[in-house]
User: Fold this.
Amino acid sequence: ARAEQARSEQFAELDLADVAAEACEEAWTLAHARSIVIHRVFGVEEAPMQGDRELLLRMLQNLLTNAVKFSPAGSVVTVSLEPQGVSWLLRVADRGRGIARDDLPRLFTRFGRLGGKDDPGGVGLGLVMVRTVVERHRGVVSVTSEPGLGSVFSVSLPALRRRPEG
Assistant:
């Protein structure tokens, strides 16, 4: 509900790299319990943007929690951040069970759980929240996945455009 009510007029300047680093740190306990390593690959030291820090943090935590829950013990989850034109491209990649092509459209729908014999549970609202937060920030979220090889969730968010001084 809070994500649906977010308005750009209320956004503040923030550092997406800092938010992503915090999300990785907060996911460490869950990952460590399953012997999963969270590998950070940040192509920038800072990633300035306008946004709601709390919502962006929750969005990233959701993606990381899902990546850890659906990955085999002892694997690696990679979080990357890099510039892409006038945007920041953030990716969360896992080596989990992957998602069948026919199931991909259901991922970002309310209560759109995929289930399965090794499903760790949930109500099917997490990725709806992810999509809502990203869209409220004028961004785009997508997923690529291959059954048996894992998934990559990509989030593109507008970079802060600073006016030239002078």
